[in-house]
Amino acid sequence: MSLENMYSRQCVHSTRLPDNPWDTTVRFSDVAVNEQKAKFDHRTAVLSCLFGDSTHAYSGCLDTGVREPNLSAEKVTSLGQHSDTLSALSYARKINTLIYGSWDQSFGFWEPRAPMTEVSNHTLPERVTTQT
Fold first, then answer.
1. H-type helices in the chain, by residue range?
2. CB distance 92 to 82 below 8 Å
3. Quick one: DSSP state of residue 128?
4. Among positive and negative, which fits the CA dihedral 102, 108, 113, 116?
5. Which end of the chain is less congested by CB atoms within 10 angstroms, N or C?
6. Measuring CA to CA, how many Å separate 129 from each of 87, 104, 105?
7. 16: closest CA among 2, 4, 30?
8. Would you write out the chain's pLDDT as a tens digit for each of its 132 residues?
9. Torsion over CA of 112, 34, 62 and 104, rounded to 10 degrees?
C-alpha cells in the first residue's frame, strides 16, 4: 500500500470543517448549513486539528498535548504529551493511525484505539513546523 493511498488530511465529509482559530478552541462546522456543530476548549492555542473519522477528531496544542475530541459524545480524551509543542498532525485512515510532528524534534505514529497509543517515535535533527 502506498503512502498516498493510505494518507489523507482531507475530511471524508466534504461539508464538515475543523477550525482552530488560535483562541484555545477547536470548532467543527457544517458549511453546507453554515452551522457550528461542536466546540471544544483547550488550555492553550491549537496548532493543528483534523478529522479521524465521522465522530473523532484530533488536535495538537502549544501545551504539548495531543487530544481526541469525540464529536458525538462531546468530550475530549487526552492521548498523550510531548516535551514541547505538538505542531503538526495528519491521519492515515486506512490504517487508523495519527501521524504527528513536534517542536521536541520528533515525529511518530499513534494508534488512538490501542491501549498503548504511541506506536513509534523518531528523533529528528530539527523541530517539526509543518507536514503535508
1. 3-6
2. no
3. -
4. negative
5. C
6. 6, 10, 10
7. 30
8. 333 433 344 444 578 888 888 889 999 988 899 999 899 999 999 999 999 888 899 999 999 989 999 988 989 998 888 899 989 999 998 888 999 999 999 999 988 888 777 888 999 999 998 876
9. 50
